[in-house]
Amino acid sequence: MQRTADSKTSLRIAIQKSGRLTDKTIDLLKGIGLRFDDYKRNLLVKCRNFDVELLLIRDDDIPEYVQDGVCDLGFVGANETQEKGADVTVLRGLDYGVCRLSLAVPKDGNIQSVEDFEGKSIATSYPNITQNFFKERNINADTVTISGAVEIAPRLEVADAICDLVSTGNTLKANGLQELKSILESETQLIRTNKKLSPGKKQLIDKFLQRMDGHQQAERSRYIMMNAPEEAVPRIKEIIPSLKSPTVMPLADNGMVAIHTVIPIDEFWIVMEKLKTEGATGIVILPIESMIL
Ligand code: PRP
Ligand code: ZN
């Protein structure tokens, strides 16, 4: 896989073709204003309004494609990048595709603890992470590398246990397996190639990141409007952990003002209760499309 990452100006971004991360990644890209069609049927899709093309591939292949510069960026689980030991830069951690890599065993079997794995075999798509885990603990366990449907291995007597990704836990339950120990926490990451990039591509990446950050900041914030007694404004300013100072406008009613500002969503209810005690009324909350700081 040799190709210099800057042999063309449009950014090439790898995303999972079909799986847990696909829809959320597509939603994120659409959310930052990128428009492309027919991504379900084509492997390489050009974006209509941004110098980007998407390469839709198996998530397992993404870290190496980005490492080798076939793609400039990739959206992939931290689990895959770590397993492959890929030489890439993690640009952002994203809060979707959250899962864990766990050891799981047949219910009511004879493996009850990590020590019980001595001399046992484990089916997994993550042989490197799994082997390291046991090596660090001086436990001899064999791994059997399987690329899909790992959860069926114990029933087929291919292995005694498995080490696989768990998200809701439904797959394990449906296969009569029980989670014994999580060995790695994972989330989706945006990774970047470490191959040299042209100034044009670097600029495109900056532009892409600015849009992404603005979108994510907006998702975590709400625009809030309210009416309040003018004399309460200094105290309200203290309550609202606003980005900048809030907009305060006089109302026709004597002594009343309208206040507009932005608040982080996590502080929403605490802020709301405090505002009401300060006499704020007609509080309106709106979602925000994007924020450029
Ligand atoms: C993982 C894993 C399980 C499933 C677990 O597959 O291999 O099949 O998710 O999810 P659950 O706990 O919610 O049931 P993934 O989507 O990563 O697909 P892949 O292994 O084929 O890449
Ligand atoms: Zn996979």
TrEMBL record:
One example GO MF annotation: ATP phosphoribosyltransferase activity
UniProt GO BP: L-histidine biosynthetic process
Keyword tags: Amino-acid biosynthesis, ATP-binding, Cytoplasm, Glycosyltransferase, Histidine biosynthesis, Magnesium, Metal-binding, Nucleotide-binding, Transferase
Chief localisation class: cytoplasm
Catalytic activity, reaction form: 1-(5-phospho-beta-D-ribosyl)-ATP + diphosphate = 5-phospho-alpha-D-ribose 1-diphosphate + ATP
Pathway annotation from the record: Amino-acid biosynthesis; L-histidine biosynthesis; L-histidine from 5-phospho-alpha-D-ribose 1-diphosphate: step 1/9
Acetylation recorded as keyword: no
EC number in record: 2.4.2.17
Domain ATP phosphoribosyltransferase catalytic: 58-213
Family, as annotated: Belongs to the ATP phosphoribosyltransferase family. Long subfamily.
Function in brief: Catalyzes the condensation of ATP and 5-phosphoribose 1-diphosphate to form N'-(5'-phosphoribosyl)-ATP (PR-ATP). Has a crucial role in the pathway because the rate of histidine biosynthesis seems to be controlled primarily by regulation of HisG enzymatic activity.
Name used for this protein in its record: ATP phosphoribosyltransferase
Organism name: Fodinibius salinus
